[in-house]
């Protein structure tokens, strides 16, 4: 199988692309890939290191308000289409796949105009701007949330392909982090870069967590770690700037306090980890809130909006959940009910269907 795949900007887009690549390799070891990303985002460093052929195109997202910068973005987009058409024709793939980020727009558009089959994966509970634009150029849209239905589009609920890799990850050993084996664990993480607004609230909580019931690991994000140095904290609180392969720590956690980006939700669903979700209000179309609401409505997570959050509320919510073993058990059960453990395989099956049509 010959596959062109595109994703960019964030790990939430790139990791699903890599999971799909891994699954195709597993099923068809002779497959060949071409990855099209940007020249200046994180994928330009990640993908070549994995020995995947890479082409970078210069492109930027459109601003939602009128600005002269959009003229530059449109010019780059048109140039990118020409480059994509040339490179896709040269590679001559069986299928072209997009998993999000504005870089996918010229790739999928060019592929469809050149007569190639296209498949797009949406990680969030609402369509991203690029995927909205690409709907009429998409043969199959794979969704991460069952309730996403788009008229006149072949929508297939597959879940997030990252779930399969999350399932097979080996859990960390608590002792590696200085944690007790006989206490529950609350993991608090606000993304690799952290959140300055929530960090201030967490600083107020450091000496207020209940040390008799649970321990707390706070992953601050590298840029915010120094803010915690020297602060008074309870003996049950452990602070780290960053933890690689975080899903392995999620697997040994009893409660996760986090944002509600697509990859995070995929991992907590795959590991059946109860969560308090604090959506970022600074994202496109408030999609993190809508992601979190989907889990809240299924009684699989607690939702607290950032505007309502304070240290007292957070401590009370954590203590309430950690003292209620029945609630924890029910949340895990509800997460299992919405889990799709073979997402990458389901996407691979959809790819095969398109190729053999």
Structure, described:
Helix 1 crosses helix 13, helix 3 packs across helix 4 and helix 6 packs across helix 9. The strands form 2 sheets. The protein has a 7-stranded parallel beta sheet with strand order 3-2-1-4-5-6-7, with helices on both faces. A 6-stranded parallel beta sheet has the order 10-9-8-11-12-13, with helices on both faces. 40% of the residues lie in helices and 16% in strands. With 357 residues, the protein is an alpha/beta fold. The chain folds into 2 domains: 175 residues, Glycogen Phosphorylase B (Rossmann fold, 3-Layer(aba) Sandwich); 172 residues, Glycogen Phosphorylase B (Rossmann fold), CATH 3.40.50.
H-E string:
EHEHEHEHEHEEHEHEEHEHEHEHHH
Q: Would you report the number of β strands?
A: 13
**Rg, please?**
21 Å
Low-confidence stretches: none
**How many helices does DSSP assign?**
13
For the terminal residues, how far apart are their CA atoms?
Answer: 14 Å
Assigned CATH architecture of the largest domain? 3-Layer(aba) Sandwich
Please state the overall shape, judged from the principal axes of the Cα atoms.
Answer: globular
- Report the mean per-residue pLDDT as an integer: 93
Structural class: alpha/beta
CATH topology of the largest domain: Rossmann fold
Largest sheet: 7 strands, parallel
The structural domain count equals 2
* Spatial ordering of strands, largest sheet: 3-2-1-4-5-6-7
Percentage of residues in DSSP E strands: 15-25%
What's the CATH C level of the largest domain? Alpha Beta
Helix content: 40-55%
């Amino acid at each position: 199988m010959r596959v062109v795949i595109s994703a960019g900007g964030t790990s939430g887009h790139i990791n699903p692309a890599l999971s799909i690549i891994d699954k195709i390799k597993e099923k068809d070891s002779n497959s060949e890939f071409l990855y099209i990303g940007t020249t200046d985002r994180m994928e330009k460093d990640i993908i070549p290191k994995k020995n995947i052929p890479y082409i970078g195109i210069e492109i930027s997202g459109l601003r939602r308000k009128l600005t002269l910068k959009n003229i530059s973005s449109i010019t780059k987009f048109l140039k990118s289409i020409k480059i994509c058409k040339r490179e896709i024709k040269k590679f001559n793939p069986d299928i072209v796949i997009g998993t999000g980020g504005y870089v996918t727009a010229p790739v999928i558009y060019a592929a469809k105009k050149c007569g190639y089959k296209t498949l797009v994966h949406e990680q969030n509970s609402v369509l991203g701007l690029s995927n909205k634009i690409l709907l009429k150029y998409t043969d199959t849209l794979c969704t991460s949330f069952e309730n996403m239905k788009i008229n006149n589009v072949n929508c297939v609920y597959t879940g997030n392909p990252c779930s399969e890799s999350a399932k097979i990850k080996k859990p960390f050993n608590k002792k590696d982090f200085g944690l007790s084996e006989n206490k529950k664990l609350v993991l608090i993480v606000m993304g690799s870069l952290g959140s300055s607004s929530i960090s201030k609230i967490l600083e107020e909580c450091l000496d207020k967590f209940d040390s008799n019931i649970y321990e707390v690991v706070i992953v601050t994000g590298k840029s915010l770690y120094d803010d915690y140095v020297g602060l008074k904290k309870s003996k049950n609180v452990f602070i780290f700037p960053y933890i690689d392969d975080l899903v392995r720590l999620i697997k040994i956690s009893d409660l996760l306090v986090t944002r509600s980006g697509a990859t995070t939700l995929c991992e907590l669903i795959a590991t059946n980890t109860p969560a308090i979700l604090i959506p970022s209000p600074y994202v496109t179309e408030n999609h993190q809130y809508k992601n979190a609401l989907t889990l809240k409505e299924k009684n699989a997570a607690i939702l607290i909006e950032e505007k309502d959050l304070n240290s007292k509320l957070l401590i009370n919510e954590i203590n309430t959940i950690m003292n209620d073993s029945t609630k924890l058990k029910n949340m895990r059960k509800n997460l299992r009910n919405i889990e799709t453990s073979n997402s990458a395989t389901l996407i691979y099956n959809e790819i095969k269907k398109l190729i053999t049509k």
